[in-house]
Design goal:
The complex is a heterodimer of chains A (294) and B (300). By secondary structure, chain A is mainly alpha-helical. Chain A is built from 14 helices and 2 strands, in the order ααββαααααααααααα. Chain A has a two-stranded antiparallel sheet with strand order 1-2. In chain A, a hairpin with a 3-residue loop joins strand 1 and strand 2. Chain B contains 15 helices and no strands. The longest helix of chain B has 31 residues, at 89-119. Chain B starts with a helix and ends with a helix. In chain B, 46% of the residues are buried. Classes of the chains: A mainly alpha (294), B mainly alpha (300).
Chain lengths: 294, 300
Amino acid sequence: MHRVLGDRRAIMILLGPALLLYTLIMLVPMVWSLGYSFTKGNSIEGFKGNGLANFTRLLDDPAVHDALWFTLKYAVIVTAGQVIAGYLLALLYVFFLKKASALIRTLAFFPVILPTVAVGLLFQKLFQVAPQPGPVNSLLNAFGLESIDFFGSASSAFWVLIIMDIWRSMGFYAVLLFAGLVDIPDEVLESARLDGASGLRLIRHIVLPLSLPVLMSSLIFSVNGTLKVFDSVVALTNGGPGNGTTPLTLYMFQSSFTYSEYGYGSAIALLLTVVCLLVSLAVYRVSRRDNTES
Amino acid sequence: MAIDTLQKTTSTGHKRPKQPPLRAARKTGGRLWIRLAVAVLLVIEIYPLIWMFLTSVKSNSDYLNNSTWSLPTTWEWGNYAEAWTTGNIGLYVKNSLLAVVPALALILLLGTAAGFALQIMVWKGRNLTLLVFLAGMMIPPQMILLPLFTIYFQTGLSGTLWPLILTYTGTGLPLTVFMMATYYRTVPRELFEAATLDGAGILRAFWTISLPVVRNALLTVGLVQFFFIWNDLLIALTFTNSQDLRTVQVGLLNFTGDFGATQYGPLFAAICINVFGTLVIYLFLNQKVMKGLTSGAVKG
């Protein structure tokens, strides 16, 4: 029977097209991009060898340092915010809303599917000060506070970005973590309650350790996504003011397409790839250690 | 792992005897506090959208002179017509559809066939091949943009929607192949062995027998990929250099500069068209969307 399921011609017909396209669009360009990082020029002017110049420049470029720092800072804060807000929502769903949570889950999830560009433009207007104060500044005024020009300084623009991205994604992590929490057997919770654990103590000593695996996979997923942040920055601040909110992804895009420096852009892309790999590896190792302890 | 738990919650979760685990701690004080939390949550999630909608039907002078909280004094539905035609949102939606529909069809067809070949068929090296596909999920898209730009430029594909269709298909395949292979794991191989005994070729068994079996999975994966592609900015921004080719996300991004800087009503109308368009799909299929996106996430 395995003759039929091992039919080489059929395997080629079924797998071939996908493998070919995947190789042409993903694998070949990846290696090609590595090659670009040793060159100078672009696809219109042509390329010439440049040795390690792109990498030495990468090390000295203050804009790269700023972008890398921004990327890491953003990734840490948004990851923490997404997962903590998601976990609190998930606890709310499981322990307080119970059956009634389906509607709230549906509502809290919908920002996840909205186009980031639309959400970015919306948040620009929610936090704007001119030509007309947006709802946030109006609210500040109502409490007798001065309006804030949120997009006038890099630090306040950064916080609007953080708020927006947590708003966009907390419903997603809530559903993910909800799945982990529902999996905790009722008997365990019951017996812990009989032993006198309740409220925060129950969550801290029973629920939290038991949901650690799903918390860890959320963390890995979130770090991976936040390191690659692009759409929300472009739509909300386009990297400004100055280059105060420019992550590596956007700096790579600007170097490549605004200044047509393909070699340098590829070197930045490589740096980004290495950062993603290192951080995922680190989170993965930490998560494995924690799992064996608990 | 989480996909199982998720399916369990949606299918059997409500049958489980409900014993409130924290009842003792929070009987009196807790209720009010929880209601407040839910109310705040609802306001945070919904108010921005209501505000956006109300602003989309305000006239310019209404927007500039009256409080941002106020209702529209006159309801300017014309803002939508203006966004659609003068603001070119109609054209951008058409471009998006022309790129997304073929890409989605290709992703599903090629990804399902590959998932079938990798999970149901028996051959040496299939685990390695699956791993090679999986590796694609780790690559940041920035890593492939420049070489692809060169390829499309040199093959003369720039200036059409083909770069988008091909890139979306290539980048969508890893997750699709992986998810489809996982779904096929639940389908017994004997089903296909029996079919071939009855005289159907394996290709025919794939087409007429396996596809109906995994049609739920096809819908789920299709939805996940639809939202990824429809909402994409990076790839569309890179490969659409002329205004006539802009997708709806790129068009919306440029809307402020082109047209919306002083035309607030039409700008908000354009945002609304985008937001409510996707919301409609979500409201009809929300369970599937949630399940699909979160299982895609955990597997990725």
